[in-house]
Amino acid sequence: MTTTIDLNEERLQAFLDRAFADLAASYGGVMVSLGDRLGLYRALAGAGPLTSAELAERAGCAERYVREWLGSQVAAAYVDYDPEAETFELPPEHAAVLADPDSPMLITPAYNVPASMWMDEEQAARAFRSGEGVPWGAHDERLFCGVAAFFKNAYSGVLVPQWLPALDGVVERLEQGARVADIGCGHGHSTVLMAEAFPNSTFLGIDAHEGSIAAAIDHAATAGVSDQVSFEVGTATDHPGHDFDLICFFDALHDMGDPVGAARHARAALADGGTVMLVEPYAAERVEDNTGAVGRLYYSASTVLCCAHARSEGGEDVLGAQAGEARLAEVFAEAGFTHWRVAEQTPFNLVLEARA
Fold it and tell me: 80 and 47 in contact (C-beta within 8 Å)?
C-alpha cells in the first residue's frame, strides 16, 4: 500500500535551496583549499585589480585554471569583479581571513579538517555501527596540521592579551616565574605563545599523540623557547610533574575518555593557589540553543573526532564539543574543585577558571 504525503511546496523549496547552498559550499571549500595551497589568495592580497593572466603569472599557475577558479570566487562573493576591465580584486577584509598567515582570523588551514573527515568516512561509519572509538592518531594526516594551524592563529589574537588576564592573579605569577602544564597541547602552539610572552616561566606540554609532540618540539625550537619548554608523550590522567601554578586544557578536555579523572589529576598536580584554565568550544546548555553555523560546525566535528577519540579511551557518556558550562562545572565539582567561574566568553569559546 502506497501512502501519499502532501508536501508544503514553499517549505520544500526553501529547504531545497538551503541544501543546495550547503552542497555548493562544500564544493567551494575545495576551491578555498586550492587557493591557499597554490598561493592564489596571497598573490591577490594587496595587489589591487588583476586580470586572470596577471594572477596566474604572480602565482605561477596556468591561466585557464586560474580563470575558472576566479569565477568560483566571484560566485561566492570572496573576490570582487570589474566586468568592464575584467579584473579581480581581493578586499583587505577578505585577505585577513584568506591570505594573511599571521591573522587571528585566518580560516584557510581549517579546510584540512573536513578533508580529513571525508578521508576517514568509512572508519567513522564503522564506529557508528560498532560503538567503538577512533583514536586521534588513526585519522588522516591533514587533521593534525589543520587543527594545529587553525588554533595557532585563533589563539594568537586572544590567549595572551585577553584570556590569561581574565584569570585572577595568573598573569602576575607568570611574569614572576610560574610552572605551567599544557595538557593536550597538540603541536604546542598554545605552549609556545605563552612561553614567548612570559620568559621567566617554564612550560610542560603533554599530548598522547607522538607525531604532535614531535611537531611541538620543532615549533618550540623555531620560536627559540626550547630552554623554557619541554614536551612529553602522556595522557591527562598520568602525566608527570607537580606544583604547577597553572594547568591549561585548550579545546582538549571534551576529547578525553575520563574528563573527571583528568580534572582530578590536575587538582593533585596544582601548587597551592594554582589555577586550571579550561578553554572549551562555546555551547549553550540545550540543543535547541546551539543552532546556526557555530553549533553545526562543532557538533559535526564532535561526532567524528571528539566523541570518537573519547570513546577510544574507554569513555561511555562522553562530553562532546558542545557540553556547555553547566556540564563542565559538574566535572570539576566531582573532581574536588571548589572554585569555578566563567572568566571569558566569545561566540566560539568558553574560558573557565577552576581552583581547588
Answer: no
Q: How far apart are CA 97 and CA 87, in angstroms?
A: 21
Phi-psi region of 261 (alpha: psi -120 to 50; beta: other; left: phi over 0): alpha
Domains of the chain: 9-100 (1.10.10.10), 112-355 (3.40.50.150)
Between CA 73 and CA 58 the distance in angstroms is 17
pTM listed for this prediction:
0.92
Cα–Cα distance for residue pair 182/166, rounded to 1 Å: 18
pLDDT tens digit sequence for 344-355 = 999 999 999 999
DSSP string for 278-327: EEEE---SSGGGS-SHHHHHHHHHIIIIIHHHHHHTT-SS---TT--HHH
Res. 149: pLDDT tops 90: no
Percent of the chain with pLDDT over 90: 94
- Check: CB of residue 245 under 8 Å from CB of residue 179: yes
Residue 178 to residue 170: CA distance in whole angstroms: 9
As a whole number of angstroms, the distance between CA 335 and CA 52 comes to: 59
Q: Cβ–Cβ contacts within 10 Å for residue 336, how many?
A: 12
